[in-house]
């Protein structure tokens, strides 16, 4: 019953392989068996936390949508509507820190794909000024002096450089990450926690995490099912990358 790898989770969700790893011939026609397989991929804590009718209705509806006879939903590694979110241990100038990296699969050429980083988030990447000081500015008459004040930006108060940017400026944290790695200041040690979000099922987003415990219900499992209008999924996608 252990779901050892993410690709194993996907083929079980699609009911393309049974728990013995054998290929299934009636993937589309045997809807009830596929529902049982998807149900077996749910973290048992989903049912322990909430035993109300609402969770039963939610999961039954999710199963019905995913296995719809006319439009069954299958998930693939090659899909562009799922995302990995990794919590990483890093060092910045030798000091231990934590940040989050979001990844997505990208097609290289036919039958070839790779993971690419699409977002990064962490307090060390935000570049907040040590103080929001309206007095830290480029003078309105500085253009008459060939912008001599620009040399002050990289002076002793360089940590307050954001004060020189326009009011609505938001730091592109992925660019900061790339710059810190490029200059050798930041080292990624490992990803200590990885979760996946799948957006393929109409009206739903589901989260997959890895569980280790004394149970048959272990490995990569669905830890959360979120009912969501498809029009709101892009907002939720961006929210994940910015958490």
Could you characterize the architecture of this molecule?
The structure is a single chain. The chain starts with 5 loop residues before the first helix and ends with a helix. The protein is built from 6 helices and 6 strands, in the order ααααβββαβββα. It has 3 domains: 6-77 and 202-221, no CATH class; 82-126 and 171-191, no CATH class; 129-168, no CATH class. The model has no long low-confidence stretch (mean pLDDT 90). The protein has helices spanning 6-13, 31-40, 45-49, 53-66, 173-182, 233-241; strands at residues 82-92, 95-109, 112-121, 186-198, 204-211, 219-227. Helix content is 23%, strand content 27%. The chain is α+β, with helices and mostly antiparallel strands and 243 residues long. The protein has a 6-stranded antiparallel β-sheet with strand order 3-2-1-4-5-6.
Quaternary organisation: single chain
Q: What is the CA-atom radius of gyration, in angstroms?
A: 24 Å
Rounded average pLDDT: 90
Broad structural category:
alpha+beta
Number of helical segments? 6
CA-based shape: elongated
H and E string: HHHHEEEHEEEH
Strand order in space, largest sheet: 3-2-1-4-5-6
* Count of individual beta strands: 6
Proportion of beta-strand residues: 25-35%
Biggest sheet descriptor = 6 strands, antiparallel
């Amino acid at each position: 019953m252990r779901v050892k790898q993410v690709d194993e989770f996907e083929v079980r969700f699609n009911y393309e392989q049974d728990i013995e790893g054998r290929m299934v011939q009636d993937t589309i026609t045997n809807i009830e068996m596929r529902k049982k397989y998807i149900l077996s991929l749910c973290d048992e804590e989903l049912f322990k936390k909430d035993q109300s009718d609402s969770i039963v209705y939610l999961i039954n509806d999710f199963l019905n949508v995913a296995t719809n006879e006319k439009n069954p939903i299958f998930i693939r590694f090659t899909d562009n509507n799922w995302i990995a979110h990794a919590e990483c241990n890093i060092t910045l100038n030798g000091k231990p820190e934590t940040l989050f990296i979001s990844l997505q699969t990208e097609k290289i050429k036919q039958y070839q794909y790779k993971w690419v980083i699409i977002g990064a988030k962490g307090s060390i990447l935000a570049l907040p000024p040590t103080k929001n000081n309206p007095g830290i500015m480029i003078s309105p008459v500085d253009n008459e002096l060939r912008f001599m004040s620009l040399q002050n930006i990289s002076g002793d108060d360089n940590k307050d450089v954001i004060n020189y940017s326009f009011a609505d400026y938001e730091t592109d944290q992925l660019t900061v990450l790339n710059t810190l790695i490029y200059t050798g200041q930041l080292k990624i040690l490992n990803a200590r926690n990885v979760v996946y979000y799948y957006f393929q099922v109409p009206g739903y987003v589901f989260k997959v995490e890895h569980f280790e415990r004394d149970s048959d219900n272990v490995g990569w499992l669905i830890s959360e099912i979120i009912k969501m209008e498809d029009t709101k999924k892009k907002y939720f996608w961006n929210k994940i990358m910015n958490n």
